[in-house]
Amino acid sequence: MTAAAALLLLTLGVFLAILDYHRSTTAIEGGIPRNPYGQGARVEEMRVEADGKDVGSIQAEIAERAYTSEEIRELFEQSIQQMEPLILGENESPDRVDSNLNLVTEIPGEPIDVSWEMDRYDVMNIYGELTGEGLEEEGTMVSLRAVLTYRERKEEQALYECTVMVYPKRLHGKERLVEKIHEEIRKSNEHTRMKGELALPPKVEGKSLAFYPIMDMRGAVLIIMAAMILILLYALDKQNRGKEEEKKRRQMRLDYPEIVSKLALLLGAGMTVKRAWRKIVEDYVRREGQGDRYAYEEMKYTCREMESGVMESESYERFGRRCGLQEYARLGALLSQNLRKGMKGLGDILRVETIQAFEERKARARRLGEEAGTKLLAPMFLMLSIVLIIVIVPAFLSIQL
Fold it and tell me: Of 39, 144, 145, 202, which is most buried by a Cβ count within 10 Å?
């Protein structure tokens, strides 16, 4: 995959190099295109030849395209035609305005600024928001005047005027009832300011009212927070147990070749399996201050089982099951079977098991190294992608077709 990525990068580099060389040796005919309005000026670097001789390179700043006077007039006409649908907002017609207008300050996508004036600032503010004051049920006429200014030449202006009829906001059903309740509460508040309590209206429009305090959500928030904390603690504890179990298995696999090797050595020196087992545990107990080793702790527990009267062969089988790993289950079964059938050849079997265990340990170490290398591929490809973007995107953006 790395070779394929490198080959792709090389191919792209060759293609861009040929394209750039062809472009740099082709004379510019006519002129250099300007950016459309709104994209800003740009700096173009060019190589200059005079009478066939190389003069050097120069940089020229190319301003964005500006409108002509005729184009500006056409632009004003188009903008004025857009004004009514732009400012109406949620209202259907200028003849009935009962929600906020959208008094835009610029024409979207065009270099035109808009400033507003009106004759009734008590009804509407400069942003088109209805204030609610001075509105009459039969409607209030408001005259709007907008000055459209071309952004690049302030002297180029156009005028837009319109008249709208503004009505109080229409309320229906629940909204109307809520507004009436607010109105009654405001009246009661004014009439009972000298009293210690605000009298709430018992009825509105013939409907009986009952008022309740809003439930404080602090208890619910604490319950949710406590539940989230408990879930997170449970997840953290489960994750820690998993990590501890994986650490235990990894440590036991590392200790297995050493344990089998010691057993083979002590049996070769003439000890019985039980005596060799006890000898390994005693050596571990003497250096216990160096930290717990799970496999040796299980061996120590097996010694206590044998001392308490459990059969030796059964103790070894229990040891293999408690460890939970195939290697230790195989060792426990091997020791148990040889005790039942006799000790002949056990030392040779353990030596072969030792060699096999060390080989498995080396293979596991190689596999971990390969996995670590594979994990590094993702950041490497990410960096390669970033480099490709940095190199290719500016090159394609600079191509003038």
Answer: 144
